[in-house]
Amino acid sequence: MASWLNLSADDGHEFSAYYSESASTPSKGRVVVVQEVFGVNEHIRDVCDRLSQSGYDALAPSLFDRLEPGVQLGYSVEDVDKGRDLRSRLDWNDALNDTLASIS
Questions:
Q1: What pLDDT is stored for residue 1 in this prediction?
Q2: What is the pLDDT of residue 43?
Q3: What tens digit of pLDDT does each residue of 66-98 get?
Q4: Closest to 18 in 3D by CA, of 36, 45, 37
Q5: Which of 38, 71, 84, 99 could form a disulfide with 64 if both were Cys (CB 3.0 to 4.6 A apart)?
Q6: How does strand 56-61 pair with strand 2-8?
Q7: Do residues 27 and 57 touch, judged by C-beta distance below 8 A?
Q8: Which residues of 75-102 are buried (b: 16+ CB within 10 A; e: fewer)?
Q9: Domains along the chain with CATH numbers
Q10: Residue 23: its pLDDT value, please?
C-alpha cells in the first residue's frame, strides 16, 4: 500500500515523502529512493512501488519541498530547465537533513 507522509527534519522543516509499504511481512528491509531533478514524480513513485512489490519498504522524500512544495515534473524541455533551476538552488545540507530524516 502506498501513501504520502509528512516528515520533519532536525531543523523543524516539514516535507512530504512518498511511502510504499512492502508487499511481504516482514519486509526485506527499507530503502530511501532519492529523487531526480523531476521531484517525486510518477517515475520515482513507480520505483518505490516496484521495490515494495519485491518485499522492501520504500520511501522517497520530496527534497524540493523547501523551495517549492509538491514538485512533480515531466520530461519536457521546460520541465528539465525548471528541475535544473530547483537543483541549483537546493542547499546540499538541507537535502541531506531531509534524507536523514527519512531514514528514522
A1: 87
A2: 98
A3: 999 999 999 999 999 999 999 999 999 999 999
A4: 45
A5: 71
A6: unpaired
A7: yes
A8: eeeebeebbeebbeebeeebbebbeebb
A9: 2-103 (3.40.50.1820)
A10: 85
